[in-house]
Amino acid sequence: MDHTRPGDTSGSATGAGPGRFAEHGSSEEGYRYHVLPSSYGGVEQRSVLIASEPRQPHAKRTVTKQLLKQSAQEVHALKKLCRNTFACEADARQALAAFAHVLQDTYLHESTVCPTPRYGKRGRPSPGTPPDHVVYHIQGTLASCLAVRQALIEQHSCFILATNELDETTLSPQEVLNGYKGQPQAERSFRFLKIRVFWPRRSISKSLNALWPC
Fold this sequence. Notes:
- By secondary structure, this protein is of the alpha+beta class.
- The chain has 2 domains: 2-54 and 151-209, no CATH class; 59-149, no CATH class.
- 43% of the residues lie in helices and 28% in strands.
- It is built from 6 helices and 7 strands.
């Protein structure tokens, strides 16, 4: 059984949201799965996309940290945009649309283009004095998208297990999950056996050589 890294939702797993998990149900409490056909190196495989509730707390912390960093960058970019001046309203709106298009973790909650009159002389102009020209500024606020945050949490809570056994009756998704969850215990057992205290023959040989050197 081959395993992809936890959290990997690449390939045919893309787009498998909570609705797809609901179609199949859970393998055990806290886990939901969705079976997907896949191939690796020309070999047909069966991938099991698993949504893990135990992973959700860690996924929420990871996503929150990621979104805070990204949203701070987008807020900084908006402030920089608002400091710019534009010769006409059309240029300002075009720049605003381009900025909104590249936003990833936030969206423009409110935005407007404001005209600002400019006068050739310093000081406050007299009432009724026409401006020499008018420039335009952008004003706006950003907001976080809860749907994006929840989708990222769902993605970080998922992982994919793949097996070459295509028959689900021979190897069920529950058995695939059990095999994966049993790997850490097996690895700990092998690591325990590798400790030098379990190499008595080598230790005795070194002790004898120290007492009776050849």
